[in-house]
Design goal:
The chain is an all-alpha fold and 354 residues long. It has eleven helices and two strands; from the N terminus they run αααααααββαααα. InterPro entries: MCP, MCP_dom_sf, MCP_transmembrane.
């Protein structure tokens, strides 16, 4: 009997220990996913806020850039940054400067959120593989690996939000004199689906994919590499205690944006023109008088590139570059710095460079 009592006691103790372990694991299992989900949400919020703030700050230049890209060469209305902004102000007023910005933000907020989050995840995965291959646990991402991570992030974010970018372009181009008016993003989406089919929502997707690789990739690679170099080299006393000032980070973002958009800009022009194909009112929207020649019809990315260069010259691939450059310098800089600052406020310990 004593032996049975001992066995019973041991069994009871074992059961209690097992239950305690299971409870502990359960608590940890719940806590870990909750913490991870909260961290993901904070990262997405920071990326979304960064995109919305940066894009709204440069909305007038964004609209002018698109108008310059798609205007009919036989009836020039927008001739340069200052003249173009004055013309929009005179003909459409203050609201005209921000036309399409609501739709733009509806696209850029999720796009920016996904882009920054995807970059963080891609960076972690690439760094882990790189450390395994080199056998060096202290290895850091090289500029080329950062370029690859940025390219992955750009492709994922752009593909996820491309239909909104497509209708945003059309909303931005239309004016009060347009024969047909899209009343908003959802009306534009439903109208394009009904009149042109679902494939129309992805017109210009291929040049966007090709263009996003150097654009977003270079943005992240240049920004982080510049920051890394400044922290290590500490030139001109720009760095104190391994921390860059807001002004210095803005300068890094401006440099990154300028390099990235200059390389990828021709593909952005091609993409925008392809998005207008099939829109029966595009000619009237671009010319405004109904008397100019109809715009060219394009059949694919190569055909768009060839016809643009043949009919308008190589310089047409850089139409709107000046207002775009003025826009990109503050926009990318604000986006990067806002993202890091919002993450600091939300208490997320890891920044994109870590």
């Amino acid at each position: 009997m004593a032996s049975e009592d001992v066995k019973t006691s041991e069994s009871a103790v074992t059961t209690i220990v097992n239950l305690a372990e299971e409870a502990k694991l359960a608590r940890e299992g719940v806590k870990a996913p909750s913490h991870a989900i909260l961290s993901i949400c904070k990262s997405l919020v920071a990326g979304g806020v960064a995109g919305g703030v940066s894009r709204t700050a440069v909305a007038p230049l964004e609209r002018l850039k698109i108008l310059l890209q798609v205007q009919n060469p036989h009836n020039i209305k927008y001739n340069g940054t200052i003249q173009g902004l004055k013309y929009i102000w005179r003909t459409e007023g203050f609201r005209g400067l921000f036309k399409g910005n609501g739709t733009n933000c509806a696209r850029i907020v999720p796009n920016s959120a996904v882009k920054f989050f995807s970059y963080e995840q891609a960076s972690k995965g690439i760094l882990s593989l790189y450390q395994q291959q080199t056998g060096n646990e202290d290895a850091q991402l090289t500029p080329l690996l950062r370029l690859g991570a940025g390219a992955c992030a750009g492709i994922i974010a752009m593909s996820a939000t491309y239909p909104m970018d497509m209708v945003r372009g059309r909303l931005t181009v239309q004016t009060d004199k347009s024969p047909y008016q899209y009343r908003g993003m959802f009306h534009a989406l439903s109208t394009v689906l009904r009149q042109e089919g679902p494939r129309a929502l992805y017109k210009g997707w291929l040049p966007s994919v090709i263009g996003v690789v150097p654009y977003v990739g270079l943005n992240f690679a240049v920004y982080e590499s510049l920051k890394d170099w400044l922290v290590k080299a500490r030139p001109f006393g720009l760095v104190e205690d391994s921390e860059l000032s807001v002004t210095t980070r803005l300068a890094c973002g401006a440099a990154a944006g300028t390099i990235g958009q200059t390389v990828a800009y021709p593909l952005d022009v091609i993409r925008r023109r392809m998005q207008m194909v099939g829109w029966k009112d595009a000619a009237s929207i671009v010319t405004g008088d109904g008397r100019s020649k109809a715009p060219l019809e394009y059949n694919g990315m190569i055909d768009t590139f060839r016809k643009t260069v043949r009919h308008e010259g190589f310089g047409a691939l850089y139409k709107g570059l000046v207002p775009n450059s003025v826009k990109v310098v503050p926009s990318i800089a604000i986006a990067f710095v806002t993202y890091e600052m919002v993450k600091d406020v939300l208490g997320v310990e890891i920044r994109i460079s870590d």
